[in-house]
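Async update (no meeting this week)

Hi team, since we skipped the sync, here's where things stand on the single-chain job. The sequence we agreed to prioritize is pasted below, unchanged from the tracker. I ran it this morning and attached the output directly underneath so nobody has to dig for it. Comments welcome in thread, and please keep replies under the output.
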Amino acid sequence: MLELRASVIAISYIVAAVLFIFGLKRLSSPATARSGNRIAAIGMALALGVTLLDRQIVSFWTIAIGTLIGAVMGVYFARTVQMTAMPQMVALFNGMGGATAALVSVAEFLRLSRLGERIGVGESTSIVLGTVIGAISFTGSIIAFGKLQEILPGRPLQFPLQRVINALILLAVVALGVFVVAGGGSPALWALFAAALVLGAMFVLPIGGGDMPVVISILNSLTGLAAALTGFVLHNQMLVVAGVLVGASGTLLTLLMSTAMNRSVGNVLFGAFGAASSDPAAASTAVGRTVRQTTPEDTAIALAYARSVVIVPGYGLAVAEAQHTVRELATDLEKRGVDVKYAIHPVAGRMPGHMNVLLAEANVPYDQLLEMDQVNGEFPQTDVVLVVGANDVVNPAARDDPTSPIYGMPILDVDRARNIIVLKRSMGHGFAGIDNALFYHEKTRMLFGDARQSLTQVGQALKTA
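Output:
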């Protein structure tokens, strides 16, 4: 009977691992992302259910109650959190994963110590690493949440001797970790846990809000690593596999996002990008430049007589919840025979895929969503580009101005289109904290106001154009 139980658990874990892999694969495309999410969820449900067959479980009721509470909270947040706040929710969920991995590592160390069992070097190393990485991921994710939610300032938060203090905390974490592995008791582990919590917060504070998507991706990979280490501690193969998958995918996503911004991971983490510059020459200025405004009626006329229109969505579209309105406008244009496409920058919005998910929610056809490499060559032949709430990802300074902080970042070449209309609330800066040269371009017209209201007015004017 015990052998049969062990075989069922082992086979089920293999099946769950395969489901995770196939689910991740299908998440790579908007067309298959929903089914991929369901496949991965089935794998997680299978892994959780089969784990209950393990006779080493201390309390079934604890797991059952915890699962019920987690399920209720998950369903509530999934149904109530707005798409604009999805990055914050991802940061929180990621932080909870890191905290769980750290606490499980600590609890296992305390359990083994209480039983008087000898903890080997390999197992104690896994406990120490799981505790440290999980704690760093937890507090780092909380700080990222605070910056994205605007509870904390989005700019890099710096103070004198910050790097020296961070280095001292890191040295303390290393020393305490070595001490625990060498045979130190539970007080040393608790001290290690506390130091790692502080290090996680100090690690993220000096990073600007514009880099939070990359930071969340890094912290996500750390949470996966912590979970894998916890799997080694608990001798649970499924936890190891799931943790490795999360860690690997988070690492790849981090590298892809850094490449999309033409910046190294080290520059993201330690460059304090977005901090106020003390050099007046480094700051962009609007002195002597003219902004040309337009009206919804003039915008409607320009769109009505265009043969091709490219819509560039940004975070402003998400804030205004204008995805359905822009889809209705596109449908009306298509009825007039206008070719409509959407240009998606890899880091548009506040997390990878943010714009894809928003537009998919509005039933925008997947074949109209073009990535940057696909669409950049089409801009010179495009009659009108409609920029809805995007900023840094369309700033030509990234291509043309070597003194710009974002110089070298790949952008959508909207300034090469024949006409550009930008929808924004104001002339406010994007995450990079710099002026956008596109707004002053001779081919650009600015339509100020809430994106959804502006698009609604353009749609109404289009019907009579």
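Quick observations from my side:
DSSP finds 17 helices and six strands in the chain.
The longest strand covers residues 308-313.
Reply here if anything looks off.
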